[in-house]
């Protein structure tokens, strides 16, 4: 049992777990998460997609093995912290005992007094023991490793709570419009593109967040795995789509409206005559006989879009293929088919402010712990009638040089 406990709290076990967490995190950051299977097939090919799905790399942070890795790492850090703090009891006394037992460097009475005055001016703690002055400093450094382990444990626990407790909202937003969340925050999309200037796929939205109190973020481009963070909100580029666009004009009143079509819809004024939109196709091909073959989908922009519609007038239904720029009048309404509009599907995460504060506090604790480990080196200087001795669990070359320089000045003064 002791061997098992020793392994569970060992650095070797901790490093193995950290490597596993890093591999999973790298996969989660490089592979888009929580998409449908066909997305991975289109992006990586059939075999790679099957491997991704089999290893749960499509939702790695919720996979059982990742949760098990995190739980084991928390156990390792907890054991390290508990056992380490127990071993720190009496560390200051042991440091002083070591200084008393260390080999002294002989100095004169005047030099010893000079050392006492020097450490008193530095405000080091002083304790008299058997006629020897014991000056100690940086004792908090003993707790640096403990604080670092404890902060890592807090970071993992709080980070898990942040991920688990986030409110997730998936919405589609047309460019130039916005959506309002339940708490009053607003997410606005200025524009969206599927391809960059060179024709390379580059799904990018320009997004702005307006908090409930009116504070606003900058208009910020977001891409897959490059979200916009603002306060307790985080907005991801999740999916995309292409909508048909039709301008309708009431011929009697002159009123007009542009309508985005993402699903089948009947556009009518009197409920009887009008245009029934069925589907938007990405393009078409024409054979030598003039027959059309419609292209159902594409991973990029719609180069030659086609509207598949039914014109319903006077009780008759006519199948029609319409193209951007085509116009028609049915039932007192003028229809003009516009170029399609690409739009983003956004994933909006809203975090708890208290948990985010705890997460930032964990980072501060880690920084403080690392500072204590590397820059606060516990040390005790014993100054007695026969000389002085420096004792520390870590090298104190700087202090030794400081003392030697001080004593050299004393010698030159004499």
Give a structural overview.
It is built from ten helices and 20 strands. It is of the alpha+beta class. Among the domains are: 2-67, no CATH class; 91-138 and 378-413, 2-Layer Sandwich (TATA-Binding Protein), CATH 3.30.310; 243-341, Tumour Suppressor Smad4. Strands 3, 8, 9, 10, 17 and 18 form a six-stranded antiparallel β-sheet that branches. Helix 5 (64-87) runs antiparallel to helix 8 (144-165), helix 7 crosses helix 10 (397-413) and helix 8 (144-165) packs antiparallel against helix 9. The longest helix has 24 residues, at 64-87. The radius of gyration is 35 Å and the shape is elongated. The chain starts with a helix and ends with a helix.
Question: Briefly, what is this?
Answer:
With 414 residues, this protein is of the alpha+beta class.
Relevant terms:
414 residues; alpha+beta; TATA-Binding Protein; Tumour Suppressor Smad4; 6-stranded antiparallel sheet; 4-stranded antiparallel sheet; 20 strands; elongated
